[in-house]
Design brief:
Nucleotidyltransferase, domain 5, about 500 residues, elongated, alpha+beta
């Protein structure tokens, strides 16, 4: 299919001087006549649609090429002699061609190269900047589509899609450069959008009907991902969710970090998000829940950050409730049940699981029941060791197992949202067969993936497009100066920005 699309696009660009619209009309009418001359079969419909798409792509390439070239003068004396961009001055040099990837296919773009007045700095194509063509030499629309595809698909799949759908043959390096540039451009806008989304949910929860206070729930967890050189390391993810007065989850913002010592970057991002949302939200302080398992990183974050956190507006202490994941605790109950009863664990396990969830001081009641059964059961050494491990866990952490109270106050008792984040953020994309990751390249894709999963993709991209800085001329073109009109020199604009 890609082979049938590429030659017409190339032919249309080589024709160049002809009327693109006339050529398109001729090709379309010819293909329609061929279709109408034969019987209407599925094969004929497929061939017609394929031909029409090829004709439209070829016309799109030609129209884009023509429109881009009109944005900058071809004559040297009409081009701005100097431009200013990102506090650097560039002087006019020469006109050069570049292969630019578009959603219609590749085009050749001629533009003026400007050299930096400071030695050692790279040159600049102002027209490329004004058109949004950056790393990977792709138009903004194509770069966005490539990044969106890479969020869900492998490198090989994205490259095959580019060849099949757009007639583009990209290397891995070009694809990675495009993704790095896209991530870098979106990055500055994401924290503010995350905060705004949480604040919106908090306001929505405050207006909801029900008997509970709204809840701001934070969770985090780790997951092992395959790294290069055959090793595995622990990456981390975090979630910030809002629940309304009926305990319905209104939405979740996701965070993610590739393996890092002590998960410092994730902790900083999570803290900034929570504090930013509480600072911006003008309503009553919601209930604050921290739902995790008992890993070292989650516990360290609670003790060092959340327990000491104060409200960013009035400085009053915040009452975070650490909820030990109910289903994680049930895993230890299962170990105790298996040690006590072997294969016949179901009745006792179901009973104590219900006690733990629904009774006051349920963890203490489960522990007493287990101890009463201990001397009545014969256990192997391995089963006895498993029993005492689970029992000590239950006794040591029972202060964070007040599930009856949590449910009465409308708090979530399970970290299912965070566990699901481990699956959706990492497992579905980072743990496919044969995959190995570098920290830097994995973080690029991870940052894009959490923006996509959090539902912030379109808004972040729109803000990026609106905020991009453009080169500005510092002198009028030579042709304007020779005309001698002072008013013309004052109002002259560079050809690439006209």
């Amino acid at each position: 299919m890609a082979q049938s699309m590429a030659p017409p696009a190339v032919a249309a660009r080589q024709a160049g001087a002809g009327d693109v619209w006339a050529q398109l009309r001729t090709r379309v009418e010819e293909r329609l006549r061929q279709f109408e001359a034969g019987p209407p079969t599925p094969a004929a419909v497929y061939a017609l649609e394929q031909a029409l798409r090829a004709a439209l792509d070829a016309a799109g390439c030609a129209l884009l090429e023509e429109a881009f070239h009109r944005r900058e003068p071809a004559a040297r004396d009409q081009a701005a002699p100097k431009v200013r961009y990102h506090k650097q001055t560039y002087r006019l040099n020469k006109r050069t061609p570049a292969a630019v990837a578009t959603s219609f296919g590749p085009i050749t773009l001629w533009s003026w190269l400007y050299l930096c007045t400071e030695d050692g700095e790279p040159g600049l194509h102002p027209l490329h900047v004004c058109l949004g063509i950056a790393a990977g030499a792709a138009t903004p629309l194509l770069a966005e589509r490539v990044a969106r595809a890479a969020v869900e698909h492998t490198q090989a799949e994205v490259r095959a899609w580019l060849q099949r759908e757009h007639g583009l043959s990209w290397s891995n390096d070009r694809l990675r450069a495009t993704l790095r540039d896209f991530r870098q451009r979106l990055g500055p806008f994401v924290p503010a959008l995350q905060q705004a989304r949480v604040v919106h949910w908090l306001a929505q929860a405050e207006q909801s009907r029900g008997r509970h206070r709204p809840v701001l729930a934070v969770g985090r967890d780790g997951i092992m991902v395959p790294m290069r050189h055959g090793s595995y390391a622990e990456a981390s993810t975090a979630t910030v969710s809002v629940y309304d007065r009926q305990r319905r989850r209104l939405g979740t913002v996701y965070l993610g970090q590739m393996p890092e010592a002590k998960q410092a970057t994730l902790s900083q991002a999570l803290t900034a998000l929570v504090q930013g949302a509480l600072r911006t939200y003008a309503g009553p302080v919601p209930r604050l829940a921290y739902v995790t398992d008992k890993g070292s990183a989650p516990e360290d974050y609670y003790r060092r950050v959340l327990r000491k956190m104060k409200h960013p507006r009035d400085g009053k202490p915040l009452a975070w409730e650490w909820v030990l994941d109910f289903y994680h605790v049930c895993g230890y109950l299962g170990q105790m049940a298996e040690a006590l009863f072997g294969a016949a664990t179901a009745p006792w396990f179901a009973k104590v699981r219900r006690w733990l969830r629904e009774r006051r001081q349920g963890a203490a009641q489960v522990a007493r029941s287990a101890m009463q059964l201990l001397d009545r059961r014969k256990m192997t050494r391995a089963h006895r060791a498993a029993f005492w491990k689970a029992y000590r866990y239950l006794r040591r952490h029972r202060r964070w197992m007040d599930y009856e109270g949590y449910r009465r106050r409308g708090l979530p008792i399970g970290s299912g949202v965070t566990e699901a984040a481990c699956k959706t953020v990492f497992t579905q994309r980072f743990k496919r067969s044969g995959m190995r990751w570098g920290r830097a390249s994995g973080q690029v894709l991870l940052d894009l993936r959490v923006v996509y999963l959090s539902g912030l993709w379109e808004e972040a991209f729109a803000r990026d497009l609106a905020a991009r800085a453009l080169p500005q001329p510092t002198a009028a073109p030579a042709a304007t100066v020779r005309r001698g009109s002072r008013q013309a020199r004052r109002t002259a604009t560079p050809g690439f920005a006209a």
